[in-house]
């Protein structure tokens, strides 16, 4: 039968079937369903997958990734399939064959694999499928674990005693990273005593980073202190590290180095004494002899005030002052500077100083000096009454008077009171230059019990200051070109190159008279060459030694030194032009007496205001 004839027969059969369907509907439906089924099975089935890609992620050190399920399906009739052997050793499946629809578990085992990206292939073979072989790609990403930051310690402890020779040594916190680079910041809190450096750092695997933690207990009272050092990584997944820091400050052994006043006369009333030393604290107590002193006022770790009661001063002798702090190892030891002396009646000389500079130890002919001590005169200061000659005892009225002899010669007095006396050193001590002379203080017919000596030098210059402290602003007058006088100060400075400064000093040594020839308007000098230290200045008296002035580090030429007429011996006025090159501000000013190897300079901390 030819294809055409066959087609005609099929066509005629269909027509007949339709006709028959009018009368036999059930048979028609069956035939149509069979025809439809034949048409559906006319296409070849194919295999499909869900999902179409598989991706695994693994971080070294974690559990293995969970298996993933691969659904293998068919687009038509069920198909048999096989899975070829997998070349990647880390990739495996739980079945090597099956019939669609099937579920296959996909496993990966990245153990011991280095960080990186890997690919494996699963080949599914279905011979009856439209595509008999299909390759499915599986990816695996292996990553290092996140870096960690590990401290060598989470706690640090410092211990310090206030009498220690040095501050506590810095303690390190060493930080190591087990992964990549980890940067971090460092913050210390808990008090100014605690610090850490550096403020930021980086730790890299194999290269640890160190943070140095310092405790500075200077000024801290004994006790326990705590703080923290926080190390904050910039990687959010790494937790902040907290290092707890403690500091134990123990009281050192208290030491008494000096008492002021160092003593009192027998039967004196209660006396407040300044105790200096170290390791004094609010818990410290003090005793004099066997008696506890009250009150005790601790001003600082180096200074306290105590009151020695009158009951402790009814007999002459030493009273050791001992300071105790409860947490210290022991009480203070008894030293020469810690003994309060109760003296028998009579003046006690403690120091002799230049009256302007307060320099200790030396005296020069004609110098005004201040003597410090106990029982030197009346309880109320008595100044001199200007007279010619000056008095060598004060007060002028009464039997309880003060007098001073230096190398056996009575010295004229400037003033006297119970703790200090000012006088003029007799010119006669010039014969003792380079040696020591005795100073004897007498009050109310009693002389000092213990011997006191001072060294005699050619000159011992000192400049007077405005606040009588021996330092700072000098007691200086400005003289402008019109002859007007003003007191030198910050608000009334000397003008460099214009002003003449008038300085006042003492300790310039021996003097001479300079006669000035008579003129029609000025008579000749009436200087008295035979005048001594008790006579007021009556002529042109000048130092024997040359006098030079330095201002602001520059020599100030033209200085003229003369004693003010009518002034007491020992006081010298120095007029000097202020050099033009002196800078504005507080300039140091000093006076030098003498020349070459034999010269003496005033104290170096006196200033003059300049503009």
Short description:
The chain is mostly beta strands.
Strand and helix layout:
Elements (H helix, E strand, L loop, with lengths): L2 H21 L1 H16 L6 E4 L3 E6 L8 E7 L5 E4 L7 E3 L3 E3 L2 E7 L7 E10 L7 E11 L5 E3 L3 E7 L9 E7 L4 E8 L4 E4 L2 E4 L5 E7 L7 E11 L7 E10 L4 E6 L2 E3 L5 E8 L6 E4 L2 E2 L3 E5 L2 E6 L8 E8 L14 E5 L4 E7 L7 E2 L4 E7 L7 E2 L18 E5 L2 E2 L2 E4 L3 E5 L11 E8 L2 E2 L5 E4 L5 E2 L8 E2 L3 E3 L5 E3 L12 E7 L4 E3 L27 E3 L3 E5 L2 E2 L4 E3 L9 E6 L7 E11 L2 E4 L4 E5 L1
Helix pairs in contact: 1-2
The domain count comes to: 6
Q: Compute the gyration radius: what is it?
A: 54 Å
Q: How many angstroms does the end-to-end distance come to?
A: 139 Å
Which residues form runs of ≥5 with pLDDT under 50? 1-42
What is the SS-derived class? mainly beta
Tell me about the biggest sheet?
Answer: 6 strands, mixed
Mean pLDDT: 89
How many helical stretches? 2
Beta-strand content: 35-45%
Helix fraction?
A: under 10%
Shape: elongated
Beta strand count: 52
């Amino acid at each position: 039968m030819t294809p055409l004839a066959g087609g005609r027969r099929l066509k005629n059969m269909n027509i007949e079937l339709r006709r028959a369907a009018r009368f036999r509907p059930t048979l028609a439906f069956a035939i149509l369903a069979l025809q439809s089924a034949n048409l559906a099975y006319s296409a070849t089935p194919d295999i499909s997958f869900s999902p179409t890609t598989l991706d695994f992620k693994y971080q070294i050190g974690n559990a293995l990734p969970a298996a993933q399920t691969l659904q293998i399906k068919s687009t038509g009739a069920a198909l048999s399939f096989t899975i070829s052997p997998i070349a990647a050793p880390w990739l495996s499946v739980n079945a090597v064959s099956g019939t669609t629809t099937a579920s296959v578990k996909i496993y990966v085992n990245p153990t011991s694999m280095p960080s990186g990206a890997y690919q494996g292939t699963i080949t599914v073979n279905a011979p009856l499928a439209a595509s008999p072989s299909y390759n499915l790609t599986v990816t695996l990403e292996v990553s290092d674990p996140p870096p960690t930051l590990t401290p060598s310690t989470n706690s640090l402890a410092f211990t310090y005693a206030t009498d220690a020779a040095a501050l506590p040594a810095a303690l390190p916190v060493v930080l190591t990273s087990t992964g990549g680079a980890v940067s971090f910041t460092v913050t210390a809190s808990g008090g100014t005593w605690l610090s850490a450096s550096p403020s930021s750092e980086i730790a890299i695997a194999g290269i640890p980073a160190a943070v140095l933690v310092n405790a500075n207990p200077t000024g801290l009272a004994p006790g326990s202190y705590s703080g923290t050092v926080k190390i904050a990584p910039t990687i959010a997944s790494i937790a902040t590290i907290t290092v707890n820091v403690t500091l134990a400050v123990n009281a050192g052994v208290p030491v008494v180095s000096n008492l002021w006043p160092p003593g009192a006369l027998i039967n004196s009333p209660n006396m407040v004494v300044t105790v200096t030393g170290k390791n004094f604290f609010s818990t410290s107590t003090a005793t004099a002899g066997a008696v506890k002193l009250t009150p005790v006022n601790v001003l600082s770790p180096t200074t306290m005030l105590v009151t020695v009661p009158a009951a402790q001063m009814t007999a002459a002798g030493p009273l050791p002052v001992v300071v105790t702090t409860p947490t210290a190892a022991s009480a203070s030891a008894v030293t020469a500077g810690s003994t309060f002396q109760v003296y028998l009646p009579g003046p006690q000389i403690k120091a002799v100083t230049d009256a302007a500079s307060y320099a200790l130890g030396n005296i020069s002919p004609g110098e005004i000096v201040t003597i410090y001590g106990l029982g030197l005169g009346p309880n109320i200061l008595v100044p001199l009454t200007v007279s010619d000659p000056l008095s060598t005892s004060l007060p002028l009225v009464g039997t309880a008077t003060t007098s001073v002899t230096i190398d056996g010669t009575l010295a004229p007095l400037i003033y006297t009171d119970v703790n200090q006396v000012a006088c003029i050193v007799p010119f006669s001590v010039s014969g003792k230059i380079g040696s020591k002379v005795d100073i004897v203080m007498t009050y109310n017919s009693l002389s000092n019990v213990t011997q006191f000596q001072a060294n005699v030098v050619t000159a011992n210059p000192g400049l007077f200051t405005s606040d009588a402290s021996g330092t700072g602003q000098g007691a200086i007058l400005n003289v402008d070109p019109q002859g007007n006088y003003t007191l030198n100060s910050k608000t009334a400075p000397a003008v460099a190159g214009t002003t003449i400064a008038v300085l006042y000093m003492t300790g310039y040594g021996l003097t001479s008279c300079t006669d000035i020839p008579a003129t029609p308007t000025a008579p000749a000098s009436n200087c008295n060459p035979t005048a001594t230290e008790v006579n007021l200045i009556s002529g042109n008296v000048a130092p024997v030694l040359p006098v030079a002035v330095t201002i602001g580090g520059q020599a100030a030429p033209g200085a003229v030194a003369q004693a003010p007429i009518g002034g007491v011996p020992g006081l010298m006025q120095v007029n000097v032009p202020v050099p033009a090159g002196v800078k504005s501000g507080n300039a140091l000013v000093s006076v030098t007496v003498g020349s070459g190897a034999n010269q003496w300079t005033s104290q170096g901390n006196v200033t003059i205001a300049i503009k």
